Structures are given as C-alpha cells and as structure tokens.
Amino acid sequence: PPPGLLQVVKQCVRVPVFVMIRPRGGDFLYSDREVEVMKADIRLAKLHGADGLVFGALTEDGRIDTELCTALLAVCRPLPVTFHRAFDMVHDPLVALETLISLGFERVLTSGCDSSALEGLSLIKRLTEQTVPSALCVTSGSFSPGGGITERNLQRILEGSTASEFHCSARSVRDSGMKFRNPNVAMGASFSAPEYSIKVADVAKVRTLNAIAKNIL
C-alpha cells in the first residue's frame, strides 16, 4: 500500500498491521532495480507505523532466494516478517519451509501449494506439523492458510490443518455510486474489475469468520 493508505489504516484500527512489499504482479524473481524499490518500500512502511512486513522472493529454479531474503530481512528488523504466497510456487515446500525457519521468518502464508487452502489441506497439515519442533527453538513460526477461505469451509480448514491462524479477503462487491456511466471505455485490461463495481472488506463476513475461528481455536 502507499504510505497514505497505511497512515489512515493505522489511525482507524487497533490490530497490528502488516504491510506487503511487492513491487509488481507476476513472478517472484526480482531485478536489482525492483529490489531497490522493495527496500525503499520497507523503510517507508516502517516510518509510517507498520507493525510487520510481508514479502517473498524466489530463485529461477523455484527455491527460496536466501541471499535476497536475508538482505530484506535486515532492512525489516526489528519488525516481524511473514513470507507470503510465493511459498506456493516453490519446487519443494518441505525444504523451503526449513529454509524460511532458518532465515528467521515468523510466519508463512500458504494455500498448500494448490489453488485453494481447502485443496491444499493435506500439505498444510504436513507443513504445520513440521514447524513445531523447529519453531520452538528457532522462531515463533506459524502457518497461515490462505486462498479461497470462506465462512463455508473455514471450520474444515482449521480443524484439518491444526493451523492457529488464517488469511482471507472476506470481500463483497459494492455497486459504484456513479450515475453517469460510459460503457465504451475500460480503464484496465479485460480481466480487470469493472469500473462500476468496488470490492470492499465485508464487516459481516469478518465477524462470522472470527466467530467460527474463536469456536475452534
């Protein structure tokens, strides 16, 4: 997020706010210039009150980029750091997990290397079990299942994975307030969200998800 969004969010909420550092969409193989941007974004996020940072970086052969991650972690400290769903694109998730623990990441966000957390549930469970002995002596590492989590499947995912945290967008679509609309112009690619609908965090969904989780955890 831009610094302005972070500042306003920090004024409005009391929960810890972790900021994602991602200079572009696409893969997680970054150029030297993109790394400069990531470092600058980390410094700005810390300056404007971020409580933690979130990033991920891979090598061309699908492994954790330990050199880059080490450099970015150094800029992030002393704040806690989460490795995001770049993890779902690794060549060997079990090896990648051990690498992340050794580097000092406190949390990993994953859908179990599948299209959704429900489909990747068996791997999430294996990964969660794998973190226990290492986390006790190296980090406070935890797994946050993420990807396709809704009110309908959250209970199954938490019970099936033994994870203690989860991640989801909990969004709904709100119609634009624009009365004049030009149907002939699109401001983005064909697969972008329509100009006259807005995706927003749905308070009712968040409360329902929280209630489900508190009943399980």
Structural write-up:
The protein is an alpha/beta fold. It has one domain (3-215): Copper homeostasis (CutC) domain (TIM Barrel, Alpha-Beta Barrel), CATH 3.20.20. It has helices at residues 3-12, 32-47, 66-76, 93-103, 121-137, 154-161, 203-216; strands at 18-20, 52-55, 81-83, 107-110, 142-145, 171-175, 197-201. The strands form two sheets. A five-stranded parallel sheet has the order 1-2-3-4-5. A two-stranded antiparallel sheet has the order 6-7. Helix 4 runs parallel beside helix 5 (121-137) and helix 6 packs parallel to helix 7 (203-216). The radius of gyration is 18 Å and the shape is globular. 29% of the residues are buried. Residues 132-141 have low confidence and may be disordered. Pfam families: CutC. InterPro entries: CutC-like, CutC-like_dom_sf.
List strands and helices in order, with pairings:
Layout: H1 3-12, E1 18-20, H2 32-47, E2 52-55, H3 66-76, E3 81-83, H4 93-103, E4 107-110, H5 121-137, E5 142-145, H6 154-161, E6 171-175, E7 197-201, H7 203-216
Parallel strand pairs: 1-2, 2-3, 3-4, 4-5
Antiparallel strand pairs: 6-7
Helix pairs in contact: 2-3, 4-5, 6-7
Subcellular location: Cytoplasm; Nucleus
Keywords: Copper, Cytoplasm, Metal-binding, Nucleus
InterPro entries: CutC-like (IPR005627), CutC-like_dom_sf (IPR036822)
